[in-house]
Amino acid sequence: MSAERTGAQIMCEALIREGVDVMFGIPGGAIMPFYHAMWEYRDRLRHVLCRHEQGAGHAAEGYARATGRPGVCVATSGPGATNLVTPIANAWMDSTPLVAITGQVSSLVLGKDAFQETDITGITMPITKHNYLVKRAEELPYVFREAFHLARTGRPGPVLIDVTKDAQQTRTVPEWEVTLDLPGYCPPTVPDRTALRAAATLLARARKPLIMAGHGVIIAGATEELRALAERTGIPVITTLHGIGAFPQHHPLSLGMPGMHGWVHVNRAIQECDVLLNVGARFDDRVTGKASTFAPHARVIHIDIAPCEIGKNVKVMVPIIGDAREALRGMLDEMPARDADGWLAHIRSMQAVHQCRQAYLRRPDTDELMPHDVYAALNRALTDRGGYRVVTDVGQHQMWAAQLLDWRRPRTHITSGGAGTMGFAVPAAMGVAIAHPHETVWAIVGDGGFQMTNQELATIAQERIPNVKVAIINNGYLGMVRQWQELFEGRRYSGTPLSGPGFARLAEAYDLRAFTVERADEVDDAIAAAWDHQGSTVVDFRVEREANVFPIVPQGRSIGEMITEAPQAVGA
Amino acid sequence: MSAGRTVVALVQSRPGALSRVVGLLRGRNAEIRSLTIGDSEGSGVSRLTVVIDVADAEHVVKQLNRLIEVLEVKDVTHTAIVERETALMKIDAPEPQREEVHAVAERFGARVIESGRDTVIVEVTDTPDRLAALIHSVRRFGVREIMRSGRLAMTLGADPRMEAPLHWQAQADGTA
Questions:
Q1: Domain co-membership, B59 together with B109
Q2: Do B75 and B90 belong together in one domain?
Q3: What is the CA radius of gyration of chain B?
């Protein structure tokens, strides 16, 4: 028997029932009843007051990506809700379980352009898995149950619950015993045995087989199964940006990242392979380049939980619809042992020719601090110390991190992939740090992205979050755009030179420890000092301004056409 | 003008369901040419027929399937179906051409359902082709208004996948 509760109390209890222990948000008029009730539950429900709703959303995403559990963010109606749109879109593109709770004006004035009224369910319709406008307190237990179910099952994604102020205030006896009524939602789990057999046969007969591991492997918790399949068959594994961590990079079968900034040997392996097994990746255009020229000799097997991804960008011979772990287990049952040693040796010989020079390409005429120096030092520290997560933003620094750090475990590399949201890293790292308080969370971010959401340093300081270490790869440009302008637009640096405040002084203003690094020989010490400091830290790495990410496939071109070094002008 | 793709869907009647369908089609680069929605044989379930211009119909159908409310969706363009559409037409019909208007309507199996001083309203339900032919034939009289219902499509024979679940049918019948 439940006693009478306000809608707002029901919301809090529903969150607790769903296993939520922390949420990120900002109060405002239409969500005030919820905040009023939250106070009573504060021993079980931690609220982290952010400085901007976008920060709250990304923090919830970081929490979700680091744990696999839905992240929760909260905002008021109108501008509070619209500020959540970017993180919701980001979560949609990256299949991140996110539950966004927004206050809405009272149902009595709904639709009348009331103060801070915005049709947020209308706005977020195309970027949520589902959303709700709740006008009656009685509906809240069901809606919360269903929302969390949708966010975390099948292909995870964002769900928004918009609750009118009067629904939050109304008293009712909550009916917690609810049965989900979702006849149109049946996420597949166990894949079709015939398809698994067909896939196993293809792979067994292939001469140049390749496995591409994506985010789905990590979401499904299928890293062990992936490793088992690779080891039984000797098939080399490439990992997409979101697949990083799905397969340990030091493994003899690991090749690295494909795509626009993938390694030459990886893209060439794709272009040469005769069977490509894609596990939980969606053939994003940053991976495929010009899709019609992608893997021209390959028969493609595609494991995905979302039928809509099959055949969307690349023609698939054997579709396997289902959970990646179930699918890989099924394939292991069907798959005879084999090896692909000759093929692997061929790929390694390509790698030997190409990779080293690209990774550490430096301008011959400069002794300035190169981004590569920072990554090399950070990689040493991560390797030596362990117990870390890395969150990256969007741009050059993100690609360098993907290329130059050694990735070992799932959910240690967290970034904004599909949406490419600059400003993701700092708030997301905050969410990761709260989820894993005993680990050190490095937020690697450019000076452009840092300036989009650095207000969350105040949140980090207020919450006394000790384990966020921000590494700003500061080159005074919107670097990736500048790189494109350099390579493809005649070096017209239109709108890309970027100034900023002294980031160390800015961080100090937030009461955080900060360092500025301008020379290569200072990098190791700065990283060690930041890591050892008992509080969150910002390190401003002032790197060579026009370093480029290589290799690069020009947009819209085949991944067979890679540019591996800068044209003559640079460094000449 | 291409023929467009005819898609039939069974949709749970939840708030915003139609809006989601329409928004998804817009967002996935499909142009809606005709959309008809109404109650189905099941309680709380609507059936809709939408005719769209789209490059990749298969992709759009899969995307529609992602919507929580969509129970079933099928591109029936190349399936055995019946298609019907109803139109109301307000046609200039002063004497002496009134008789001729009546004759044309009759030839197409259309009904004159209202006769005003200078105009008549003609109602017709037919296949899209015959409807187009009728409209073409009456244009010469002067057509003031045309109101079309949008396309209705139904597959031939039993198609259990496209039927509302039994318990909803029972609810609609009042037997549950």
A1: no
A2: no
A3: 19
A116 catalytic, yes or no? yes
> Can you give the pLDDT at residue A364?
55
Distance between CA B64 and CA B17 in Å, rounded? 11
CA A256 vs CA A139, A247, A399, A558: distances in Å = 48, 9, 12, 18
Computed over its alpha carbons, how large is the radius of gyration of chain A?
24
Report H helices in A388-446. Answer: 396-404, 425-435
Which residues of B touch chain A, with CB atoms under 8 Å apart? 11-12, 15-16, 19-20, 23-24, 27, 58-59, 62-63, 65-71, 165
Q: Is the pLDDT of residue B1 over 60?
A: no
- Dist CA B142 CA A315 (whole Å): 51
Question: Do B64 and B129 lie in a common domain?
Answer: no
- One domain for residues B96 and B73: no
- Regions of chain A short of the pLDDT cut 70: 1-2, 356-366, 567-572
Instruction: Quote the number of domains for chain B.
Output: 2
Two structure tokens written together for A567? 């044209």
Residues of A with CB under 8 A from a CB of B: 121-122, 125-126, 129-131, 133, 150, 182-185, 306-308, 310-312
pLDDT value for A354: 82
What is the extent of the structural domain holding B100?
Answer: 84-152
- Note if A165 is an active site residue: yes
Asked if B54 and B96 sit in the same domain, the reply is no
- Token digits of residue A316: 């698939």
Rounded distance between C-alpha atoms, residue A63 and residue A84, angstroms: 16
Residue type, A207: R
B1 vs A179, higher pLDDT: A179
State in words which class domain A5-172 has: alpha beta
DSSP letters spanning A209-222: EEEEE-HHHHHTT-
Q: Do B59 and B91 have their domain in common?
A: no
Q: For A313, name the nearest residue in chain B, comparing CA atoms only.
A: B59
CATH 3.90.1150.10 fits A362-542, yes or no: no
Instruction: Name A570's bridge partners.
Output: none
Domain boundaries, chain A: 5-172, 193-352, 362-542
Interface test with chain B among A104, A107, A124, A125, by most B beta carbons within 10 Å: A125
How many residues in total does chain B contain?
Answer: 176
CATH number, residue B145: 3.30.70.1150
Q: pLDDT by residue (tens digit) across B57-113?
A: 999 999 999 999 999 999 999 999 999 999 999 999 999 999 999 999 999 999 999
Class of domain A193-352: alpha beta
Number of other CB atoms surrounding residue A2 within 10 Å: 12
Task: Supply the pLDDT for residue B167.
Answer: 78
Name chain A contacts of B63, Cβ cutoff 8 Å.
308
ipTM score of the complex?
Answer: 0.91
Strand partners, A212: A238, A278
pLDDT, residue A117, reads 97
- Whether B76 and B92 map to the same domain: the answer is no
Residues B132-171 pLDDT 10s: 999 999 999 999 999 999 999 999 999 888 888 887 888 8
Q: Are residues B167 and B148 in the same domain?
A: no
